[in-house]
Structure formats: C-alpha cells, structure tokens
C-alpha cells in the first residue's frame, strides 16, 4: 500500500550523511513510500560553498546505485530559491524568470541523473518577474515531458490563480499542487513562522485548493519534533490560549489511542476530508517508521471531530493580546 507520507530530503548530503540518507530512502520505499521531495537549493545554508544541490546529487547517486528504483519512486524538486551569490540570500537568488527556470531545471536534472521529474515546484515567489512569464516557462517543460506536473510553494493565492489562468488559456497543464507550512497548532496573528511571507497554509489556500482540485503538501508538520521531544519546546509563535486548548485535546486523543502526539497530527493531516500530505524531514530510521505508522493510522470519526472542534482554532485579537501580556 502506498503511503501518504512524503519523504523530505532537505538535509540529505549535508547534515544527514550518505549512508544514513541511503538507509532512509531504502526504508521509505520498503514501506510503500513513493514521493521524495527535494530542491535545487538544499541545503545551501549547511554547505561549505554556500550553494545548494547536495540533496539532489545524493538522490541521483542513490538512484544510480539502485537499478530499477526510478520506476518505483516519484521525484519532486523545486527551483527559484538557490543563491546567485553565496551569503547574500534572500536578496540574491535565482528567481523565476524564464531563463532562470530553464537553467535551474537543467541543473536539477543533471544532479538527479534523470531525464524528467514527476513534479516541479516554484519554491518561492519572485515579484520581479511576471508570473505569466514563469507560467510560460513551466508550460514548455510540461509540454516537453520533462516534468509531469507543476506546483507552487510559498505563493499567495492570487499569483497561483494568474499562473493557472495563463496555462489554461494556452492549453498548458496548470499548477495542481500547493506546498506550505502547516500543522495542527496555529500561530499567533502577525507572527513569522517561516522565512516566506506566504509560507503558512491559510484558509484562503485551503479554500482555493478545494474549489479547484489542487493537491496539498505540508512541510514542518511536526514543528521539528516539538510535539514529542521535551528538548524541543513549542516555538514562541504558538504561545497563546488556542494552543493550550488544542494541545490538551491532542494529548488526550494521543493517550486514548496509545500513539505519540506527532503521529496523531500526521494522521489528522493526511486523513481529513481535505487531505494534506505531510512531508517528513527526519534523520533517523525510527523517526521515519514512527511517522509512517502515524500516517497509516485512521483516526476514528469521533476523535477526529474532537481535534477539529478544539477551540479556538485561530486566536482572535483579544486572545493574542492576552497571550502577549501573560
């Protein structure tokens, strides 16, 4: 059975060594894993050169060492966020001009050692380039068969809509997937959860995806292990009364089921009426196995309802002000 979990390869080849990375990739496939998510900029912040490409290159070496594996997995990569000048990100990055898209994509194919990928993401928006220009470049890639699908990560809805309308008007395949930060907890309004202005999955993203049939992927669904690792506290941006309420329900449900809180979060994300595929970026086999078990678990309807109905789901101004004064 194919798992709904996505294996995030962000740190493969940098902070996660090759032996461990290969073991994680092998275990993922053994347990029904299909989608591997990477990017051309992974992980420039951990590399000696200040540039990315290590993750794609490692996946390429793994595919070369595993004959027949390319037919068993699907590869998703991203472009647009690789630094042009090391040490000057985000002011210096490749962006999403037509030339940049084509150049970056050729580099990704070369590092991965493949002729095509299954999904190509725009990693982050580029306000210096008309989104229609980017959409035209993506159309050339889908029409040539070098990528099957295209999607947007960390983009506002209006730019996704413009790109989709451009594709539809020209007979090209439109974007059909969104990738954003998302988890069970909700951050306080006007706080920065990611490095991207539109990085967090919003109600508008959810509504747009539901109305237009877009697939949803979530990065950092476990808040870097904070749900279950006492050494990793819940980040301050989630410090408000809504988090207290939701954590109480989450903890109770996890205890009732005999699962970890993170496993319940993964099941909640993947098994909802509007499924959201979680991306796991762990570095240990037991983390991967635990996550796969969580995603495979089907939450009973009454427990899912308890999680859904935990209030307040989003802190209002008064609650945010009270939390700030506490």
Automatic annotation (TrEMBL):
Annotated membrane-spanning segments are none
Q: Where is the signal peptide?
A: none
> Which part of the chain is the NADP-dependent oxidoreductase domain?
4-310
What's a Pfam family this protein contains? Aldo_ket_red
Which branch of life, at top level?
Bacteria
SUPFAM superfamilies with a match to the protein in the record: NAD(P)-linked oxidoreductase
- Tell me what this protein is called: Aldo/keto reductase
């Amino acid at each position: 059975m194919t798992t709904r979990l996505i294996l995030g390869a962000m740190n493969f080849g940098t902070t996660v060594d090759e032996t461990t990375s290969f073991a994680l990739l092998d275990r993922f496939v053994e347990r029904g894993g299909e989608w591997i998510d990477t990017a051309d900029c992974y992980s420039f912040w951990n590399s000696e050169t200040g540039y990315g490409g290590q993750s794609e290159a490692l996946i390429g070496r793994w595919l070369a060492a595993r004959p027949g594996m390319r037919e068993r997995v699907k590869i998703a990569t991203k472009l647009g966020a690789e630094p042009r000048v090391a040490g000057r990100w985000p002011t210096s990055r490749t962006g999403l001009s037509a030339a940049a898209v084509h150049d970056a994509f050729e580099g990704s194919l070369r590092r991965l050692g493949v002729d095509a990928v299954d999904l190509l993401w725009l990693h982050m928006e580029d306000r210096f380039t008309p989104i229609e220009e980017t959409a035209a470049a993506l159309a050339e890639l889908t029409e040539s068969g070098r990528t099957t699908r295209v999607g947007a990560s960390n983009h506002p809805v209006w730019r996704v809509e413009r790109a989709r309308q451009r594709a539809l008007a020209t007979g090209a395949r439109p974007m059909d997937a969104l990738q954003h930060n998302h988890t069970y907890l909700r951050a306080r309004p006007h706080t920065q959860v990611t490095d991207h202005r539109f990085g967090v999955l919003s109600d508008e993203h959810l509504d747009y995806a539901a109305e237009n049939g877009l697939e949803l992927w979530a990065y950092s669904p476990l808040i870097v292990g904070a749900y279950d690792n006492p050494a990793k506290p819940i980040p301050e941006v989630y410090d408000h009364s809504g988090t207290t309420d939701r954590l109480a329900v989450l903890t109770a449900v996890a205890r009732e089921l005999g699962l970890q809180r993170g496993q319940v979060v993964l099941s909640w994300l993947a098994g909802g009426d509007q499924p959201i595929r979680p991306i796991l970026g762990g570095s240990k086999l037991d983390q991967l196995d635990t996550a796969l078990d969580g995603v495979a678990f089907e939450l009973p309807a009454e427990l899912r309802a308890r999680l859904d109905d935990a209030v307040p789901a989003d802190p209002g101004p008064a609650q945010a002000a009270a939390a700030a004064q506490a």
